[in-house]
């Protein structure tokens, strides 16, 4: 039976190798842009900033460059960017990079149009909960990574370093006006980032498929996205110059972004946010890799969506074996762990990522505190004891 659904993704998606050149011809939503990108200057070093400025010049669009964004972007950076765009008279925002610059740009678009500081508009934790009354300024996303899906979602995730809160703002007006997904820009991504981002895309699709808000269209996108990641991510990690594999994972990431835009994530993502908020050197994908096996083993134990896990495994091309449903659903978990191993991220070094004395009680509290939004989408009840157990097994006992 086909269930009722509500589909809304207003972003123009320009996809494919070489598509960045179309920046010179596709009409932009303003006259002067602020280009928001990473603080490590990597986008300048790769020549992308200069190339984009040159392409937009052909349309007589001026660009002010703001290279200040960190991994796990901060609310202070958002305010600094808004101050610069006001000073320079910019009327739209170009985000260059992955989820961090895109989310920073979305947050800037809210504060620039509505005034005040960004945290005034954050709807949870210590956020000011002010309504976003004026339409945010347009954002054009140029994606150089394949994972977050932020290029097609109405979600911005920003961290407040004073309180260690990592909070999402989700409103329809935050969908980027347009997004360029050019896999050629992804050829030089390092192995680790490729693996973490690819896992993020995989989990957006898998979580959205399990979500109570899944719908006909997102289900199709999710099954294709998990297949594309499962069959191509190892090749992207081990042979980064393979454009066909990069294109497959880029498509998966965008499809998976559309899945979470509509079906949302479940509590696996809620559990990751406190990890990377407390340990800011942990990339989002690394936090997900840490909890993947224990989280989904618990989901199998709950037993309410084992049919969906089996469907995911079958879409991935995994041989589903076993006599009972739980054993068959575990094939999904084992294949996922196998994928982590093939990508070299099955063991996350606490030392390398600055994870010191993880406080599982605090992480549990924070999962239910500022990251509670996904619980309504879980088709099972994840209790405090469950969350504490998953953190304990993933962060303490696994070492
Ligand atoms: Fe994610």
What does this structure look like?
This protein has 399 residues and is an alpha/beta fold. The protein has 2 domains: 12-186, Rossmann fold, CATH 3.40.50.1970; 191-397, Dehydroquinate synthase-like, alpha domain (Up-down Bundle). Helices cover 48% and strands 12% of the residues. It is built from 13 helices and 8 strands. It has helices at 42-45, 48-57, 75-88, 99-114, 191-210, 216-238, 243-262, 267-278, 284-302, 306-316, 325-342, 360-368, 384-397, and strands spanning 12-15, 32-38, 62-69, 92-97, 139-143, 155-160, 165-170, 178-181. Strands 1-8-5-4-2-3 form a 6-stranded parallel beta sheet, sandwiched between helices. Strand 6 and strand 7 form a beta hairpin. Helix 9 packs antiparallel against helix 11. The mean pLDDT is 96.
Tag the structure with descriptive keywords.
399 residues; alpha/beta; Rossmann fold; Dehydroquinate synthase-like, alpha domain; 2 domains; two-stranded antiparallel ribbon; 12% strand; binds fe (ii) ion
Please outline the helices and strands:
Elements lengths: L11 E4 L16 E7 L3 H4 L2 H10 L4 E8 L5 H14 L3 E6 L1 H16 L24 E5 L11 E6 L4 E6 L7 E4 L9 H20 L5 H23 L4 H20 L4 H12 L5 H19 L3 H11 L8 H18 L17 H9 L15 H14 L2
Parallel strand pairs: 1-8, 2-3, 2-4, 4-5, 5-8
Antiparallel strand pairs: 6-7
The chain binds fe (ii) ion.
């Amino acid at each position: 039976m086909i269930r009722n659904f509500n589909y809304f993704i207003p972003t123009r998606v320009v996809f494919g190798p070489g598509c960045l050149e179309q920046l010179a011809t596709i009409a932009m939503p303003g006259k002067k842009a602020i280009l928001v990108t990473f603080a490590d200057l990597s986008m300048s070093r790769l020549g992308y900033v200069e190339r984009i400025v040159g392409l937009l010049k052909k349309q007589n669009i001026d660009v002010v460059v703001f290279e200040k964004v960190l991994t796990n972007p901060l609310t202070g950076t958002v305010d600094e960017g808004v101050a610069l765009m006001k000073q320079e008279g910019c009327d739209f925002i170009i985000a260059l990079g992955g989820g961090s610059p895109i989310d920073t740009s979305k947050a800037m678009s809210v504060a620039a149009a509505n005034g005040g500081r960004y945290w005034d508009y954050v709807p949870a934790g210590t956020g000011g909960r002010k309504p976003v009354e004026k339409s945010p300024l347009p954002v054009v996303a140029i994606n150089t990574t394949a994972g977050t899906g932020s290029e097609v979602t109405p979600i911005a995730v920003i961290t407040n370093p004073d309180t260690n809160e990592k909070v999402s703002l989700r409103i329809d007006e935050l969908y980027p006006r347009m997004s360029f997904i050019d896999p050629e820009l992804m050829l030089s991504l390092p192995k680790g980032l490729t693996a973490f981002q690819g896992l993020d895309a995989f989990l957006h699709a898998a979580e959205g498929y399990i979500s109570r808000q899944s719908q006909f269209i997102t289900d199709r996108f999710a099954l294709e996205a998990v297949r594309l990641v499962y069959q191509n991510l190892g090749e992207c990690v081990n042979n980064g110059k393979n454009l066909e594999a990069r294109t497959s994972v880029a498509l998966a990431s965008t499809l998976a972004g559309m899945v979470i835009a509509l079906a949302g994530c479940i509590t696996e993502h809620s559990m990751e946010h406190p990890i990377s908020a407390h340990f800011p050197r942990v990339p989002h994908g690394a936090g997900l890799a840490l909890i993947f096996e224990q989280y989904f083993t618990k989901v199998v134990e709950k037993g309410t969506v084992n049919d969906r896990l089996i469907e995911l495994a079958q879409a991935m091309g995994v041989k589903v074996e076993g006599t009972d449903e739980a054993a068959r659903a575990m094939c999904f978990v084992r294949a996922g762990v196998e994928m982590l191993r093939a990508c070299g991220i099955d063991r996350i070094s606490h030392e390398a990522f600055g994870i010191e004395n993880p406080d599982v009680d605090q992480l549990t509290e924070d999962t239910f505190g500022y990251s509670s939004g996904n619980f309504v989408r879980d088709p099972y009840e994840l209790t405090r004891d469950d969350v504490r157990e998953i953190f304990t097994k993933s962060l303490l006992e696994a070492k």
